[in-house]
Every structure is written in structure tokens, then in C-alpha cells.
Amino acid sequence: MDDRGIIAAVFAAPVLAAAAMWAAFSTGIAKIEPRYVVRLELAASGERIGLPPIEGPADAGRPLVVIDAGHGGHDPGASGQNGEREKDVTLALAMSLRTALLADGRVRVAMTRDTDRFLVLEERADIAHRLGADLFVSVHADAAQSVEARGATVYTLSDKASDAVAEALAARENRADSVNGVALDGRGEVVSSILVDLARREMRARSIRFGDLVVREGTSAFDFHVTPQREAAFVVLKSLDLPSALIEAGYISNQDDARKMHDPAWQKRFSGALARAIEIFLAEGRAGAVPSETEGR
Fold it and tell me: What is the Cα–Cα distance from 143 to 176, expressed in whole angstroms?
């Protein structure tokens, strides 16, 4: 057999084998039996998930805080050295914060999730928007390659990383025809862009102020990372009309932090300090005492 015949035989063998296998499957002679099946419940195309209940005072004039427990369902988040899962830690901390706020009775509370269920990132902030929340707090647990990394961190939306983001947000808000309650219809692209930029700056300043309060109130209750306040372009924080913060309660990759975050007593101290920061922030907002971006930085 010459070289061309050898090459043809080499390429023909897998094709013939595949054809024979397909014939076997199609005639029912052979069957594929999956070892396991994963089923995920997804909302129908274009369908929005249902809203959670609002708890707390019956007075609808009281400020509303939406608490978001990060990850959940088939998304476990980061993992600890002893098998701890971020989704479990975040749910426990979020529920503890909910309990602390309801006990004080000054604000209303809603949870993006109070069970082990999956939500896409956009759905989390969307819940807060649809409920007309005054503050959005997302609770997470950090992880790092270095097991020495430890302590809590408060993240707000990065201004430097938001130039391209602002353009996309502007497009979204323009479609909604308003931003911060101000109608954009008929104002033109230049004016609309200015309004969007002003809204972004205001929300960034208010979010940073909330971060300041979390660090101030939490310092005596739990440990912070050496850099306690940071900025990043997290999807759940990309909002023009809702002050938001993502709080990493500690490093699940650090054994000491992981142990603390599972400790009910530590959870109570964490949630108590965070509840105080939330109530002070909302009281300042009601009194019009929130510092401007130039005053806060």
C-alpha cells in the first residue's frame, strides 16, 4: 500500500467507527445512560423573578434596606481550607443582619434570598430597584491565594473603572426615561449625559460615606483588612440611583476568619455593627447630612 492509501485508511477508520456507533444508537441497539443529571430552574425568557416580602415596621415611609446574600444554589462561591462554602457563610451573615435590623425596628428589610437558591447578578440589584430600596448591601466572604490574608473589606463602585460602564448605564437609564426621578425625555443627549454623570457621582459619594460608617462602627467589633475600603466594578454595585456596597466579611481562605464567620457570637457582633452603620447612614440621608464627594474625600 502506498503512502496515500495509508493516509486514507488512517482517516477513514474513525469515521467508519463513528458511523457504526451512530447507527447503533439510532436503532436502539445501544443506549447512552448518563451517570448523573443536573437540573437548574431558570426563569422563562423575559420573565422577572418574584419579589421577596418586605419585613419590619408597617409604615411604608420607613427606609428600606435590601440585603443580598452572595452566591447560592449551584454557585457555592469561594471555599475554605476545611470545605467551608461561601454561599453558606453569606446566608448566615445576611440572616443575622436581617435579625439585627428588625430588632431595632427603625427600618424595613427585604432579602434577595433567604434560602439556598441561585440568582444571577443582575437580578439581585434589580430586586432592590423594583422595591424602591434606599440602600443595597451585598454580603460576601473573600478568598486569596495567601492563607495569611484576613479581615473584612467594604467595596464600593470604582469611579475609574466606570467610564465605559457609565456609557452603558446611561443607555439603560435613557431607555427608562429617567434617572434619580428626573425625566430625561426631550432633554437631548448632552443634558441626559450630564444628569447621568451627576447621578453616578452622587451615588458613589453616598456609597463611600456608607463604607466610612461601616469601618467606623465595625472597628471595635471585628477585624478589618489592612486596606478596609476599596473600589471595584462589581455588577451588583452598578447603579445610578441606589447607594450600594459589597461587604466581604472576612477571608474564607483564612482558617481563623472562616472559624469566626461560622461563630454565632461573631455573626451577632458583625451584624450589630453593620446595622448601626446602616441606621446612621439612612438617618443622615433623611436629614440631608450626607457629605458631598469633595467633602468625603
Answer: 37
**Three-state secondary structure string covering the chain:** CCHHHHHHHHHHHHHHHHHHHHHHHHHCCCCCCCCCCCCCCCCCCCCCCCCCCCECCCCCCCCEEEEEECCECCECCCECCCCCEHHHHHHHHHHHHHHHHHHHCCCEEEECCCCCCCCCHHHHHHHHHHHCCCEEEEEEEECCCCCCCCCEEEEEECCHHHHHHHHHHHHHHHHHCEECCEECCCCHHHHHHHHHHHHHHHHHHHHHHHHHHHHHHHCCCCCEEEEEEEEECCHHHCCCCCCEEEEEEEECCCHHHHHHHCCHHHHHHHHHHHHHHHHHHHHHHHHCCCCCHHHHC
Full set of structural domains in the chain with CATH: 64-296 (3.40.630.40)
pTM of the predicted protein model: 0.74
Reading the chain (297 residues) residue by residue, the pLDDT tens digits are 555 554 445 445 555 555 555 555 455 554 545 454 444 455 555 678 899 999 999 999 999 999 999 999 999 999 999 999 999 999 999 999 999 999 999 999 999 999 999 999 889 999 999 999 999 999 999 998 899 999 999 999 875 544 454 344 344 434 444 444 545 455 556 555 655 566 677 888 999 999 999 999 999 999 999 999 998 877 778 776 799 999 999 999 999 999 999 999 999 999 999 999 999 999 998 887 555 444 444
Q: How far apart are CA 219 and CA 213, in angstroms?
A: 10
Cell output for 260: 469566626
Contact 139, 90 (CB under 8 A): yes
Q: Identify the CA nearest to 141 among candidates 93, 177, 206, 97.
A: 93
